[in-house]
Write a structure and sequence with these properties.
alpha+beta, 5-stranded antiparallel sheet, DNA-binding
DNA sequence: GCATTAACCACAG
DNA sequence: CTGTGGTTAATGC
């Protein structure tokens, strides 16, 4: 990872114009921008954490070690915040963040972040909204994970990549089969088999990680019903 | 019983 | 890393 002074971080992003001014003279521009290559760890579970991270560019997976295997909790696409729950909620990270593409992130010390929250209600409100949306998303995902069959869970995630990450029916799956299994909570073999089945039934077409969704409505039905 | 679902193991490209 | 086959266990008609 290569550190730089932050050039274009959340101070300027999302229509938040004057946060930098509101910090006051005692708080100069206090964040550090860093670049991560694909596969590099942005922050690690169980490590001490005192930064809020604003992901400017890239794609990141959040992972947590389980008893059996590593669980992939979520995928986050820039622009977004990383580590709000894990930095604000405890001293120690409860999950890791790993870059899945070359990514750029901006690190803000938690004391600076707290000051921003105190000084700017609109900013605080936006943060609360983002946290709430994430929680709602996790609730949905939780129920789906527990109650749907694997076929439905896989379909749901393929749709999620398409709709939330790439905005296209034709994309490169950002995971290998084993990671896909860690995301959907199943075995690598089952993922292979189900992807083959979806291909045979002409619901998707697949070459390695390059997927095209051919029949979205059926995929949606599979996702809903399991 | 029998079918379905899915995990685990093994092995081959 | 990936796909497939065999086996096995659990669950539901």
């Amino acid at each position: 990872m290569k550190a730089d002074k932050c050039l274009n971080c959340f101070y300027q992003a999302d229509g938040i114009n004057s946060l930098n001014d509101e910090l006051g003279d005692g708080f100069p521009h206090q964040c550090v921008q860093a670049n991560f290559k694909k596969g590099e760890i942005i922050f690690k579970e169980n490590a001490l954490s005192s930064n809020i991270i604003y992901l400017q560019k890239g794609l990141v997976k959040l992972t947590k070690e389980g008893i059996q295997r590593t669980q992939i909790l979520n995928i986050r696409k820039a622009p977004c915040y990383l580590g709000l729950p894990t930095t604000m909620g405890d001293k120690i990270n409860h999950y890791s963040a790993i870059a899945m593409e070359d990514s750029t992130a901006c690190f803000v010390d938690i004391s600076v972040f707290r000051r921003l929250l105190n000084k700017n209600p609109d900013f605080s409100y936006d943060i609360i909204v983002e946290l709430c949306r994430n929680e709602l998303g996790q609730f949905e995902r939780c129920v789906k994970l527990v109650q749907n069959q694997i076929y439905g869970r896989l379909a749901g995630n393929l749709l999620y990549f398409s709709e939330e990450i790439y905005d296209s029916d034709d994309y490169i799956i950002p995971f290998n089969r084993s990671e896909l299994a860690d995301l959907v909570c199943t075995s690598r073999e089952t993922i292979s088999r189900l992807l083959s089945e979806l291909t045979e039934d002409n619901i998707i077409s697949l070459k390695g990680k390059h997927i095209k969704i051919l029949n979205k409505s059926i995929l949606q039905k599979i996702s809903e019903k399991g």
